[in-house]
User: Fold this.
Amino acid sequence: MEILLIAFKEHLKVHFSDTCTRKAVDNIARFLHFVDPNEISLTFLHDAHTLKRFVSTMIDLKFANATIKNFLGQIQVFVKFLTSRYFKDTLGEERCNAALSFLDAVKQTKEGLNKTSSKQPVKRKLSVMESQKVLSAAKLDVVNMLSHSNQGDLSDSEKTITCYYLEAILILKHLFGPTVVQNLQVKNWLAKTSVKYSDGGSSIKVYIMTTGGTRIVLTEEEELMFNYYFKNVRPTQLQKDGKMVKAFFLSCKGNPVANPSNDINRLQKKYNLLPVTGKDAKQAFN
Assistant:
C-alpha cells in the first residue's frame, strides 16, 4: 500500500508546489498512521468515527482550528484522489460509495469547526504599553538582582528571571523573533560597537551587535543589563567541566535556551500577567 502514497505524491506534483506537496503527503501519512500504526489502511473510509477521534485528538492537543481545517482539506484531496480515475477501479464500488460518504463527513466536520470559530471572541489588539507590561512589572526586581549579581549570591531562580527578562526585551520591545534570541552568540556580544548621535541637542549612545545578519540596537541601559548578565550571571550557569558554549543566553543547567517564547510566558505568569506573545507585540506596534 506504500505505492498509494507515492502515487498520491505524483498526482499532487501536477497541481501544487513541491512544498505544498510535501506537507500534504506528510500530513496524510500522519493521518494514516493514526488510523493504523502498523500498516497503511483504507478502513477509515467505512468508519466516520475514526475521523471524529482524529479531530478530537487534535483539539485536545490544542491545535488551532485553522490547522485542523487544513488537515481536513488535505484528507479531502486524498480521498477524492482515491475515487478518481487513477484508483477508482482498484478501490471497487463499495469503497467508492464509502469514500463519498466519508467526504460528506469531512465536509460536515469542517462546517462545525467554522461555527466554533465564529463563536470565539476576537482577540483585542493590545497597546504598546500593554504588550510590554512584563518589562515594567519585573524591571525593579531584575535591576536589583543584576546590581547584586557580582556578589555571587543569586539563586538559580533569580538567574533564570534575569535571563527571561533580557529575552523579553529582545522579543517584546525590539520585536525580534525567538530564533534571533537563540542564535545570539558570545562572539556577537563581544564584537558589539557603540555609536553616539545627537537628538534635540542631547547626545545619545547606543550599542549595536549583529547576529546572522540581524542588527540589534540596545540603549545604554539595556547594554548595562546585558553586560551584568554576561559578566556576572552567565559564568555561573556554565558547567564545571569548563566546556565553552557559544550561545549568549543559557539555562541554569548551562544549555542554550530552548524556547524563548515559553520563557517569556513563564515570566509573565510569575508576575500574574496575561500571556503576550511576540506576535501580539508586533501587532501592537502596527
User: Anything to note?
Assistant: The radius of gyration is 26 Å. The beta strands are 193-199, 202-211, 214-219. The chain is about 60% helix and 10% strand. The chain has two domains: 2-119, 128-285.
